[in-house]
Amino acid sequence: MNREDALQKIKELQHELEEHNYNYYVLAKPTISDFEFDMRLKELEKMEKEFGVNDPNSPTHRVGSDLSSDFEQVVHKYGMLSLSNAYSEEEIREFDTRVKKIIGIECDYVCELKFDGSSISLSYENGELVRAVTRGDGEKGDDVTTNVRTIRSIPLKLRGNDYPESFEIRGEILMPFEVFNALNAELEEAGEPLLANPRNTAAGTLKMKNSSVVATRKLDAYLYYLLGENLPADGHYENLQKAREWGFKISDHMALCKNLEEVFAFIRKWDTERFKLPVATDGVVIKVNSKNLQDNLGFTAKSPRWAIAYKFKAESVSTVLKSVSYQVGRTGAVTPVANLEPIPIAGTIVKRATLHNADIIKNLDLHIGDTVYVEKGGEIIPKITGVDATQRHPMFEAVRFIANCPECGTPLVRNEGEAAHYCPNEDGCPPQIKGKMEHFVSRKAMDIDGIGEETIELLYSQKLVKNIADLYELSKEQLMNLDRMAEKSAQRILDGLDASRKVPFERVLFALGIRFVGETVAKTLVNKLHTIENIQNQSREQLTEIDEIGGRIAESVVDWFSKPEHLVLIEKLKKQGLQFAINDEQLAGRTEKLAGLNIVISGTFEKHSRDELKKMIEMNGGKNVGSISKNTSYLLAGNNIGPSKLEKVTKLGIPTISEDDFLKLLEN
Ligand code: IVH
Question: Is residue 304 within 6 Å of ligand 1 at its C-beta?
């Protein structure tokens, strides 16, 4: 056979084998025997070898390789966020109300099963899988492409030809119950410890260094989220149907719902039906169908505003409450923890359960020695949901919430309207001091390389630091005197601290760990008020005038700045050169030209992306709103605007402006 013919034949065999793969693993409708399949695969293998073909997306690569790989970290093009949770129909109604309030119109929802596995982001270019990345910390994950290529239901080359040139698709890698149980049966036979649950096992498998072992683990994958520039449709539902045509395994169990009643019907059905599925699910994800509306709704720092996860109620078992201990967190909140007679739930041994706060203890009327019901669902820490009162001995003692901090002895306080007890000794209570430092150095805050929980523990116990400002006064000698700290690590810490002097103000503000000032609130405060002095001088009332700053946040900010020791801390950090004002770059171009204007963006644009336009509106003091209402000032109109939108603006008499008009408006 000449080379050209051979290459042609290789291509044909690859294609044929992928078709069989698809029939078997995606459609579950095989059309040839396993034996025949293996014969052809061997033939392909032989030919690829003979003609020196090394195509990573050939079916021959699905068996993996035993070359060990360390995973490269890859930054996600679109962050991988999580979803906010709902546990009742009531919370879904609240979600619906929030959505409608922003978009101002009725919308369709898509209901999907929430698969309980390990999330993955797949990138395709020109119809071929180019990369598979784990969620990681949401911003960057591990490149596990070689392992993912072994998962038969993931297409290496797409079917048809109407897929976008480049896109991402996200989904869940799962280990089917059947595979998991067989694996555990083997382990049991060998007297080895058992695996906890399919989710952890799938995640662990995905991170194995030897992809040929991964290939034997029979992982499966369901995809549920298509991302990219040129998606086929505005509807998420339609896009997934298309993705199914391209060869992806898209669950058949999803529904396009016109209203909440249809959403609830889907949830009620799957609450019990899910036990018949081959893989683990732990809820239903409800998503706004239209991508356009999704864009309008946008994201909070943690999750999209256009989706919510309803969690199924978890399995419940009973065990005995042995004692209650108390943990003090970074903010001083005291969390009671139940110590239980160990009991297996959903595959893991549970020894402890959170009790959240004093009210929960009171409502449960807990007594030491009680037989309690414990539930565990997904990632959630187990919790006690009830007491079997018939099992209570009259001598059992009621659990009484502690009055003093278990760490520093300070009397606990409970603010009005709050469920939690706090230790008010913010700057003198060890777990609070250490927790604040951990938060300060963490990646989303000051991102100081080389300092972790362990180093902070050491630094604190050696009395080298007692607040975050002290970190900046550490010397190399002091660091090198710490246990297991070599010169290189010490230098890394010093370099990290030095680099943190350039961290923008909004992250410094977040890093201070003021209660209720998360990433988003910090950003809002900095964008509005620009300097620490301005923030410090605001009254509660002034603060609440700012969009998205409520009374609780305002109070916490005012309270924080009212403490002299905090002002001293800021002075020290200022002296160290940390950023306490918005920088010139952020400030440049910031105007009030669009102050008071509510602008709706619609359509596609030529010069700027929608995100850029949105940013420009915000940079100039305007507000980008999602839907047209009588309060809309302008419709910033691009090409291909839907007729219903145009009708609405005409009806309400809202002026439309083009991209060029908008840009001119800003120039003036
Ligand atoms: S959509 C922006 N759909 O649940 C987030 N997620 O708690 C888009 N998950 O990280 C995710 N089934 O790993 C979506 N049908 C589904 C899902 C699903 C499971 C996972 C996913 C996500 C987590 C959120």
Answer: yes
From edge to edge, which strands make up the β-sheet containing 634-637?
A: 623-625, 598-602, 634-637, 656-657
Which one of the listed residues 114, 157, 242, 614 is annotated catalytic?
A: 114
Nearest ligand 1 atom to the CA of 112 is 15
Same domain membership, residue 227 and residue 331: no
The pair of structure tokens assigned to 511 is: 């890093």
> Per residue in 1-32, pLDDT tens?
889 999 999 999 999 999 998 888 888 777 88
Note the pLDDT of residue 313.
Answer: 78
Strand partners, 334: 328, 421
Residues 100 and 221 in one domain: yes
CB of 81 sitting under 6 A from ligand 1 = yes
Instruction: Write down the pLDDT at residue 381.
Output: 66
Q: What is the whole-number distance in angstroms between the Cα of residue 83 and the centre of ligand 1?
A: 7
Residue with the smallest CA separation from ligand 1 atom 2 is 81
Q: In this structure, are residues 412 and 383 in contact, taking their beta carbons and an 8 Å threshold?
A: no
Question: Strands 598-602, 623-625: parallel, antiparallel or unpaired by DSSP?
Answer: parallel
**Single-letter code of the amino acid located at 11:** K
Q: Is pLDDT at 585 greater than 80 in this prediction?
A: no
**Domain carrying residue 296:** 75-311
Pocket test for ligand 1, best of 87, 114, 267 (most atoms within 8 A of CB): 114
Q: 534, 560, 587: which is the final residue of a domain?
A: 587
Atom of ligand 1 nearest to the CA of 135: 10
CA atoms lying within 13 Å on the CB side of residue 483: 9
354-377 residue pLDDT tens: 888 898 899 999 999 999 999 875
Q: Could you give the percent of the chain with pLDDT greater than 90? A: 58
CA dist., res. 472 & res. 282, Å (int) = 45
Residue whose CA lies nearest to ligand 1 atom number 22: 82
156 plus 187 within the same structural domain: yes
153 and 220 in contact (C-beta within 8 Å)?
A: yes
Same domain, 568 and 486: no
| Mean pLDDT to the nearest integer, 577-582 | 95
Backbone φ, ψ for residue 296 (5° rounding): -65, -35
Number of structural domains in the chain: 6
Which CATH number goes with the domain that contains 37? 1.10.287.610
- Does the beta carbon of 634 lie inside 6 Å of ligand 1? no
- Decide whether any atom of ligand 1 lies within 6 Å of the 112 Cβ: yes
d(CA 21, CA 23): 5
Q: Nearest-CA neighbor of 430 among 420, 438, 442?
A: 438
The domain that contains 338 carries what CATH number?
A: 2.40.50.140
153 and 234 co-located in one domain:
yes
State if residue 224 touches ligand 1 by the CB under 6 angstroms criterion: yes
For residue 166, report the distance from its CA to the centre of ligand 1, in Å: 22
User: Which one of 78, 224, 302 would you pick to mutate in the ligand 1 pocket, going by the greatest count of ligand atoms within 8 A of its CB?
Assistant: 224
Known catalytic membership, residue 100: no
**Same-domain check for residues 510 and 569:** yes
Answer yes or no: do 435 and 546 share one domain.
no
Average pLDDT over residues 615-628: 85
CATH of the domain at 178: 3.30.470.30
Q: Tell whether ligand 1 has an atom less than 6 A from the beta carbon of residue 115.
A: yes
